[in-house]
């Protein structure tokens, strides 16, 4: 059922959405001042989302017949709670759709998934300079500043693997 003009429809990503999602991932990388670090291809995303046992899930926001945003997420697990949660890897709303509620609707869909499935939490990371931090705080997200993100990649990853 189409939504009213100016109202976003949130739905699970479909295979035909992959080119637009990949384009938006690259737009996000540019927004995050790291376009040279983004190497995602359409075949990679298609495989991640639509393999028989996907580890990545996605939702898109359709606004006036065009994809205006996306959320890519996967399951995490809380050993203390004993249940899964959702880790939001990416959320992006195209500039022309910002301020229309698209981002909020994407987040609300993920919150609904958490509640419906009995998941304990919805996690994400935000760059310290991103103005969307105020939006997340307004929705009730809290900064987890006692935890520091660590990452192992490249040569150190290969070295440890040996």
From TrEMBL:
Keywords from the named record: Acyltransferase, Transferase
SUPFAM superfamilies linked: Acyl-CoA N-acyltransferases (Nat)
One Pfam short name: Acetyltransf_1
Residue ranges constituting the N-acetyltransferase domain according to the UniProt record: 8-162
Name of this protein: N-acetyltransferase
């Amino acid at each position: 059922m189409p939504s009213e003009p100016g109202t976003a429809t949130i739905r699970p990503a479909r295979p035909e959405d992959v080119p637009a999602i990949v384009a938006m991932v690259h737009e996000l990388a540019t927004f995050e001042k790291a376009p040279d670090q983004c190497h995602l291809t359409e075949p990679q995303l298609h495989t991640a989302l639509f393999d028989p046992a996907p580890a990545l899930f996605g939702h898109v926001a359709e606004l006036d017949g065009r994809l205006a945003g996306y959320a890519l997420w996967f399951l995490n697990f809380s050993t203390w709670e004993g249940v899964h949660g959702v880790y939001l890897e990416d959320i992006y709303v195209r500039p022309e759709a910002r301020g229309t509620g698209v981002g909020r609707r994407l987040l609300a869909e993920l919150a609904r998934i958490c509640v419906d499935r009995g998941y304990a939490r919805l996690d994400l990371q935000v760059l310290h300079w991103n103005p969307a931090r105020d939006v997340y705080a307004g929705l009730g997200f809290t900064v987890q500043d006692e935890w520091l993100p660590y990452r192992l990649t490249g040569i150190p990853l290969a070295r440890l693997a040996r």
